[in-house]
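Schema walk-through. Below, the input block comes first and the output block second. Nothing else is stored per chain. Lengths vary across the set, and this one has 136 residues.
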Amino acid sequence: SLRLKATQEGDRMGKCFKERNEAKARNDQQRAKELTQRGEAHRANMMLLDKEASAKIFQVELHGLYVSEAESYFDISVQEARDREESSLRVIVGKGIHSDNNIPKIKPAILAHAKSLGLPIEVDPRNEGCLIVSLK
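--- output ---
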């Protein structure tokens, strides 16, 4: 994945900068300069890969809709994500804080709807107000 490649570039960058500091400590300025340039190249690649990865995150905001509207937009978004050959779809459903008695309506409805369509779906471990649909 692009994120994995970006992480690998970041690791290479860190290694270059560590070796550069060691070269400086040995007073090897030529090697330090070379490692700085390589490290900067890895940094640029990492940033480019992260930017590309963030542009590929396909998401839909369902927060604030009625359940029937949310299901309809969900279906459309799944099809659009498949058409774009996305591997996943991030679905923002909210936590239900603004629902009656703070009981979420959209989240359980979309979870059940996705499962009825045979789509693998799970709560985003970093944000309980988001769901991740696997499309591959």
